[in-house]
Write a structure and sequence with these properties.
21 strands; alpha+beta; 6-stranded mixed beta sheet; 5-stranded antiparallel beta sheet; disordered N terminus
Length: about 375
């Protein structure tokens, strides 16, 4: 048995780096506990993949300190720089980088050369089953699909039981059903093994369902960090709300406070629309920005009766756009356009078309205040 085989990976990973290329500057700091997953979320070019490459040792920062598996692998002050193959970091990139001359089994087992034959066989069988690769083990990368290549690459990265997993959009080319299955499987395996992981993703559902903590990065800087639902679900800052794709950001004025109900009423200046939102420490008549996610709005072709939802707004369908896995329906409600998500089945069953009169329905708790402070 090799030293890596059977060795516990229950060490946290932490560090900070500063990196510069051209006019782009990256400043990042992180800490991931054993079995936890940190998600890096942000637009393309924000610096997320650059940070993964720095942690993996594929580029050298200007300064900083990186620890993996309880030991320093980079330190700018003491000139420590452990090469990538000795860092015990499993890296899965968007390009897969499978060895074209090896079979799927050969690729997965590549990092198990120092393991005993029996240990290698058991580990290979475990990963083949986990990633549903049983019929593909003897094929080469050019003989399997892109999604199958990604599954094989992920299995290869996990094979030697790394002390840290680095995942750069690992489920990007998989279908929705397999993506959700593998998310759950990978999350369970990382927790059981005590392996910390850092993952880059643009998928909010993926970040919320998998991450213990999330960092929103933009232009090389940290914009927000914390629990996924708090940071991505109802972000409290305007810049972060726009980065994470909150579809409805409404400029309103507080018209009345209802402490007994824990709510307050906000309206557009013209009075053509008003919303009931959670009570906040803001004075009446103050201007506020209210966020509402399109996925929290229900569409109805009749005025809802007997509903606990406090916001029931009539409007006219002004646009319908394909937004996989469903559609975005824009509803003109007075002076405000509300964007709503709906499935294709619901769109067809309701026979929704532009010009239709519909109702937008959502709870007060689906609304949240967004600070415009930078």
């Amino acid at each position: 048995m090799s030293s890596a085989q059977g060795e516990s990976s229950s060490f946290r990973s932490s560090g900070w780096v500063r990196y510069q290329i051209g006019q782009f500057n990256l400043e990042a700091q992180w800490e991931v506990e054993p079995g936890q997953l940190l998600t890096l979320f942000g637009p393309s070019g924000a610096g997320k993949t650059t940070l993964l490459r720095a942690i993996a040792g594929l580029l050298q920062p200007l300064e900083g300190h990186i620890e993996i598996g309880g030991r320093p692998v980079y330190d700018g002050v003491t000139s420590i720089f452990v090469p990538p193959h000795l860092r015990r970091a499993g890296l899965l990139t968007q390009g897969y980088h499978l060895f074209p001359h090896l079979t799927v089994a050969g690729n997965i087992g590549y990092g198990l050369i120092d393991w005993t034959p029996e240990g290698r066989r058991r580990r290979l069988a475990e990963l083949v089953e986990m990633f549903q690769l049983g019929e593909l083990v003897n094929r080469r990368p050019h003989q399997i699909s892109g999604g199958q290549q990604q599954r094989a690459a992920l299995a290869r990265a996990l094979a030697p039981m790394p002390a840290l997993m680095l995942l750069d959009e690992p489920f990007n080319s998989l279908d929705i059903e397999l993506r959700r299955t593998l998310r759950s499987e990978l999350r369970t395996r990382l927790r059981e093994a005590g392996v910390p992981a850092i993952m880059v993703t643009h998928d909010i559902e993926e970040a919320i369902s998998m991450a213990d903590t999330v960092q929103v990065i933009n232009k090389g800087k940290l914009e927000a960090a914390g629990a996924p639902l708090e940071v991505l679900g109802q972000p409290g800052h305007g810049r972060v709300a726009r980065l994470v794709g909150v579809e409805n950001l409404l400029s309103l004025v507080i018209t009345s406070l209802h402490p007994q109900d824990g709510t307050m009423v906000c309206a557009v200046p013209s009075g053509s629309l008003q919303l009931e939102v959670p009570l906040s420490d803001v004075a009446s008549s103050s201007r506020v920005t209210v966020g509402v996610r399109a996925s929290d709005i229900i569409l109805s072709d009749t005025e809802p009766r007997g509903s606990s939802a406090r916001n029931r707004l009539p409007g006219v369908v002004s646009a319908i756009e394909l937004r996989p896995p469903g559609y975005q329906v824009t509803l003109a409600c007075g002076d405000v356009d509300l964007k709503c998500h709906i499935t294709g089945t619901s769109l067809n069953e309701m026979c929704i078309a532009t010009g239709d009169n519909l109702w937008a329905v959502f709870k007060a708790s689906s609304c949240f205040l967004v600070s415009d402070e930078e």
